[in-house]
Specification:
- The complex is a heterotrimer of chains A (293), B (337) and C (512).
- Chain A has 293 residues and is α/β, with parallel strands linked by helices.
- Chain A is built from 10 helices and 10 strands.
- The longest helix of chain A is centred in the middle third of the chain and has 21 residues.
- The N and C termini of chain A lie far apart (87 Å).
- Chain B has 14 helices and 8 strands.
- Chain B has an 8-stranded parallel β-sheet.
- In chain B, helix 3 packs across helix 12 and helix 12 runs parallel beside helix 13.
- Chain B starts with 10 loop residues before the first helix and ends in a 12-residue tail after the last helix.
- By secondary structure, chain C is of the alpha/beta class.
- Chain C is built from 15 helices and 20 strands.
- Classes of the chains: A alpha/beta (293), B alpha/beta (337), C alpha/beta (512).
- Chains in contact: A-B, A-C, B-C.
- At the A-C interface, helix 4, strand 4, helix 9, strand 9 and helix 10 of A face helix 8, helix 13, strand 18, strand 19 and helix 14 of C.
Chain lengths: 293, 337, 512
């Protein structure tokens, strides 16, 4: 006797809530074999705009939290992910068509990536900052701080990458206190949405991580040109091709209008690296006079 | 904050008007500690900036003469004798016997017991430096430490005034100031000022020495300057010359800023005297620049500006000779006193 | 007589041994360019100083080839300690010829000799000294073991601190092991040419530094040259934007130091006299031709009138005139075009309803001059509160609470610098946290040091110059070892650091 399953409705994750696309659009997500898996929300430019608003609203609280607190919050994501391994393994297996062992390895690594970055939260500033010995009676310190709102593209169609690729992009962005609007792997978005569910039950404040599913090629130009976005992570944008043949270079061109920081595409999945964090920080140098008298 | 028609008010009345109430320790403390702070780095940078002015030709000639005209030629040694004072006076009247266009200095500055000898030696040349005459300034109030009872300080003052001193250089009680007893310092200055009165109703001018080297911080110097002016100082003066550091350009700049602010508020002009440690013409010119660019050029007169110095005049004379003859002079061509 | 008039104390240009004509400096030699020549004039007198060569795209190509050759055959093979010694040599030569450089800079730029002598030139020497020491210590720069130079750096610098900006860009580039092609600003090429002579005296290997002079198109030919690995631009945000577009899609690394509209925030508990000096220094230093100038004064409302009174009194003691006079505080505006821009924006300020006050300065008959000017009753919507004027013009706004000060200070697309004046340390530090600015000066302003990173947020550019951070802008990591547990699942290539950019390099034609 088989039980009739209850399929999940996969939605967007914006500002800590799970809205459908305001456009009402969905697209069919299929397995590696081509079987129907789900109707995912197909985010529109207005969803992207809403996500930026949510991300901007969350910057103050997230960047203003203590580094120790951010580290714990990120570590908690790993804890929760660990508890839901099976669900992620299932989804990855069906959507990527990999073996259970391969899917497991991907989930494990994704969890470990969160743990690795969680530990950086209260250290990166020590490594990337400096006390500067200026020639004068001044206290002078350079400290990195988050740049603000980052728009990102998760690696698209990278083997064994639908979860790990996404995590490898967003973890370094948020660990320093940035908030992110990320477009998931268009073909394999299920683990991104399930990750959103993990995030929603974790301690990550709403709006810190905003997840869009749909066409990165369609959404990214709006984010790249959005004046309230501070930086653009194109790690996963290498293979994008717009309706008129636009590539990631067009996104970089659009970003130049407001001089956003841009991380160009990488092959495969970004490796865990301090550079991943420092790509989205600003160095602030403060001088103060120093005297006994 | 302004007070109308302050001129002619007794210091206490004027201070009450400015503070807007009774002149209690608390009121004084709130007032002085409410003054804006001083950033030492910024102050010293401003002073250093003023030091880079380049004073040449006609400006320099005028500056050298102004230094002499506003100098309090000083001897304040335990070993002072009537003879030493007489030769000081001779130098004060005729700083450079080889060039009689050289102006006289503003005053001779001596200990109280030397005042009669200075007055006697000056004779007809004794008088208002604005008129080319030479005043007699006496240090008083248990100079330099100020550690004596008020009665003794007042007696010290009265005796010097009675002997003919035109100006009294008093010291404040730094101990009282540093322990926060601003009222004590205020009252002593007021009392000494009253002791400067002569029977004919006129009075000797009062210079109040803060001994900035002991106050140490610029915030203290600012508060002490303000306190001294509030209590009726005609001049505020940096140092006794017996404590190091004595006058410095930043301290002088700061005190001039207080004088400028007082003038903004009341319209009154208070004089300034840096003393000790100013030995070269080059240094002294920097002080003149600082005066001119802080309170204005009209302060560069003996009634509002003095240098307290012993060896400065000779260096100015060397410079003056160089300007006149076109070649460098040497120490044997100016007199040692 | 009026003592304050101060008799003139001019530095004599006779210390200079200038040529009538300067060519390009390519491959260690002065060579004639293939373009026209143009005159460089003294903005204080409008007299011609010398004629300067205009580099064509072909000249730029020759220079880049020389730099590439020098990089591959000499500079990248030289030990770090030897590179450092060359930089130390340059620092010493700059010190030896400091007076000459200061006079030339004042003559050509119009800025007062007091500033070139006490700020620009000493900092130039300091920058080379600081960078020199890094050359053999690159593994400590924070990028992991064996960081690599980028290759040929193309640098385009502005006219406001001609020689200093040259030092800011060249010194770290050379220390890191790059070779350089640099283009000085069109109106201020003179000291770069004297610097070329210094390079010859230092016996720097030929081609390591190449100097191409000329206007905008020369710079464009340089930054778009396909064989440069790094572009560093200092100048206006508009040109920076254009360069960001031109570099998009290439592998060129880019540093941009652009405009600013810094807030200088004065609280009622500020050290008042020093704050006044800081305001003056913030906006009238170098005639306000400073990207980090404190052009927006944000003053707490309860001390507004007092601050403005004191400021006006102080400004009345500023001395404007001959840049070579050692007593001059305010020199000439660098060019007729810049003067026109300052005038236009100031007129707009007046038309928009702000109240204008100008210091009473005698304007010389010849040359380009603009007396120190303050606008009060400025609101955040006025164009003089938003646009970079790049001149001696201060816009005064007020605030009531620290939160309002922050909001107003950050309300700009720029984010280069800010000033805070308060005696309250905890408030100062909290404000520092909130300000979106790359450099924050507390109880001081316009301080620069080779050890201290400088650069902005948002549209003020990206990357930092100075300090360890400035050095890393000219280096590339060889890559740390990946954390062991995480490397297995990474699908990146074996040496696959983040920078392993393979994707389509479709260079787009960009609208010029």
């Amino acid at each position: 006797m088989s039980r009739l399953t209850v399929p999940k409705t996969y939605k967007l994750y914006i500002g800590g809530k799970f809205p459908r696309s305001e456009s009402g659009r969905t697209y069919e997500v299929v397995s590696a074999k081509g079987d129907f898996l789900a109707n995912a929300a197909k985010a529109s430019r207005k969803d992207a705009r809403d996500a930026v608003v949510a991300a901007r609203a969350a910057v103050g609280g997230w960047a203003g939290a203590t580094a120790y607190n951010r580290g714990q919050v990120i570590y908690r994501i790993a804890e929760l992910l660990e508890g839901r391994r099976a669900q992620f393994v299932d989804e990855i297996q069906s959507s990527e068509g990999v073996t259970a062992a391969q899917a497991s390895a991907q989930v494990d690594t994704a969890i470990d990536v969160w743990v690795w970055y969680a530990g950086w939260a209260d250290k990166y500033a020590q490594v990337a900052g400096n006390a500067n010995p200026v020639s004068g009676p001044y206290f002078n310190l350079s400290v990195p701080e988050p740049t603000g709102v980052v728009a990102a593209v998760a690696p698209q169609g990278v083997p064994s990458g639908s979860l790990l690729g996404l995590v490898s992009v967003i973890a370094p962005i948020v660990v320093s206190g940035n908030t992110v609007v990320v477009v998931a792997d268009e073909a394999a978005p299920l683990s991104a949405i399930s990750l959103s569910e993990v995030l929603a039950t974790s301690d990550v404040p709403g709006g810190v991580i905003n997840m869009l599913t749909g066409s990165a090629a369609e959404i990214m130009p709006w984010l790249a040109a959005h004046a309230d976005v501070n930086a653009l992570d194109l790690s996963g944008a290498g293979s994008l091709e717009g309706a008129k043949g636009e590539s990631w270079v067009d996104l970089q061109l659009a970003a130049a209008e407001t001089l956003k920081r841009v991380v160009p595409p990488v092959a495969g999945i970004p490796r865990p690296a301090l550079e991943g964090i420092t790509a989205f920080v600003e160095t602030k140098t403060v001088w103060h006079t120093k005297s006994m008298l | 904050m302004t007070i109308t028609q302050p001129v002619g008010l007794a210091p206490t009345d004027r201070a009450e008007r400015l503070l807007g109430g009774d002149l209690t320790e608390t009121a004084l403390r709130l007032h002085l500690e409410g003054l804006s702070g001083v950033d030492a780095v910024g102050l010293e940078q401003r002073a250093a900036g003023l030091s880079t002015r380049s004073i040449k030709t006609t400006s320099k000639a005028w500056a050298l003469d102004t230094i002499i005209r506003t100098c309090d030629l000083t001897t304040l040694e335990g070993a002072d004798t009537p003879g030493k004072v007489r030769s000081l006076v001779a130098k004060a009247i005729t700083p450079d016997a080889t060039d009689l266009t050289t102006p006289s200095v503003a005053a001779v500055c001596v200990y109280g017991d030397m005042v009669p000898y200075a007055v006697e030696a000056l004779g007809a040349r004794h008088g208002d430096p604005e008129k080319g005459l030479v005043s007699v300034a006496a240090v008083a109030t248990a100079f330099p430490s100020g550690r004596a009872s008020l009665a003794i300080k007042l007696a010290d003052t009265r005796e010097a005034v009675a002997a003919g001193a035109d100006e009294i250089d008093m010291v404040i009680d730094r101990g009282a100031f540093l322990s926060g007893q601003y009222g004590v310092v205020f009252d002593q200055i007021v009392a000494v000022k009253e002791a400067c009165a002569r029977p004919d109703g006129s009075r000797a001018h009062l210079k109040v020495i803060l001994e900035t080297g002991e106050l140490q911080t610029y915030d203290n110097v600012k508060r002490a300057s303000w306190l001294a002016i509030l209590a009726g100082a005609d001049f505020i003066k940096t140092s006794t010359g017996k404590v190091s550091p004595a006058a410095t350009l930043p301290v002088t700049l700061l005190m001039l800023e207080v004088i400028r602010d007082w003038h903004r508020i009341t319209g009154e002009k208070v004089g300034m005297k840096p003393a000790g440690g100013i030995r070269s013409s080059k240094d002294a010119v920097r002080y003149l620049v600082t005066v001119a660019e802080t309170v204005g050029e009209e302060w560069l007169t003996p009634h509002l500006w003095r240098f307290g110095a012993s060896s400065l005049v000779n260096d100015v004379l060397l410079q003056r000779q160089k300007m006149r003859t076109g070649h460098y002079s040497g120490p044997d061509y100016v007199t040692v006193d | 007589m009026a003592f304050l008039e101060y008799a003139a104390a001019p530095e004599s240009p006779s210390i200079l041994n200038l040529k009538a004509q300067y060519g390009l400096f390519i491959d260690g030699e002065f060579v004639d360019g293939h373009g026209d020549v143009f005159d460089t004039i003294s903005p204080a007198t409008e007299e011609v100083i010398a004629s300067i060569a205009q580099a064509t795209a072909g000249d730029v190509d020759t220079a880049v080839k020389a730099a590439r050759r020098a990089y591959e055959t000499v500079w990248s093979r030289m030990s770090g300690s030897d590179r450092g010694k060359y930089l130390f040599r340059i620092a010493r030569l700059v010190q030896e010829r400091a007076r000459e450089l200061a006079v030339a800079e004042s003559l050509d730029n119009g800025k007062p000799i007091r500033e070139t002598r006490d700020v620009d030139v000493p900092l130039v020497a300091a920058w080379f000294f600081y960078s020199a020491g890094w050359a053999d210590k690159l593994e400590h720069a924070g990028l992991g073991p064996n960081p690599r130079a980028l290759g040929v750096a193309a640098q385009v610098i502005p006219w406001n601190f001609p020689l200093l900006m040259l030092a800011w860009t060249i010194a770290p580039a050379l220390a890191a092991g790059n070779t350089v092609v640099i283009k000085p600003a069109e109106t201020t090429s003179l000291t770069a040419m004297l610097f070329a002579e210094i390079l010859q005296q230092a016996d720097l290997p030929k081609g390591v530094v190449n100097i191409v002079t000329g206007p905008g198109p020369t710079g464009q030919a340089l930054v778009t040259h396909e064989d440069v690995n790094k572009v560093a631009f200092t100048g206006s945000t508009n040109v920076g934007r254009m360069i960001a577009r031109q570099v998009a899609g290439t592998q060129k690394r880019l540093t941009l130091e652009l405009g600013g509209k810094a807030a200088n925030i004065v609280f009622d508990d500020a050290p008042m006299d020093q704050a006044i000096e800081g305001i003056v220094n913030g906006i009238f230093f170098n005639q306000g031709h400073v990207c980090c100038a404190g052009s927006r004064l944000l003053v707490q409302e309860n001390v507004h009138d007092e601050v403005i009174d004191r400021l006006k009194a102080r400004l009345s003691t500023l001395r404007m005139g001959d840049p070579l006079d050692k007593n001059t505080d305010i020199g000439a505006i660098n060019s007729a075009a810049q003067l026109e821009r300052i005038r236009t924006l100031s007129d707009t300020g007046e038309n928009e309803g702000a109240e204008r006050w100008t210091a009473d300065c005698r304007i010389p008959d010849k040359g380009f001059w603009f007396a120190p000017t303050i606008f009060t009753k400025v609101s955040a919507a006025h164009s003089i509160a938003r646009e970079e004027i790049f001149g001696p013009v201060l816009s005064v706004l007020t605030f009531r609470t620290p939160a309002e000060a922050i909001t107003k200070a950050n309300n700009t697309p720029y984010g280069l610098s800010a000033g805070i004046w308060t005696e309250k340390g905890s408030r100062m530090l909290a404000l520092v946290d909130q300000l979106k600015a790359g450099v924050v000066w507390a109880n001081t302003f316009n301080r620069f040091d080779p050890a201290s990173p400088f650069g902005g947020y948002k549209e003020s550019g990206y990357g930092r110059e100075g300090g360890r951070h400035g050095l890393t802008a000219y280096l590339e990591a060889s890559g740390w070892d990946a954390p062991a547990a995480l490397s297995a699942a990474s699908t990146a290539p074996a040496d696959g650091k983040r920078a392993a950019r393979k994707p389509k390099q479709t260079r787009k034609a960009v609208a010029k």
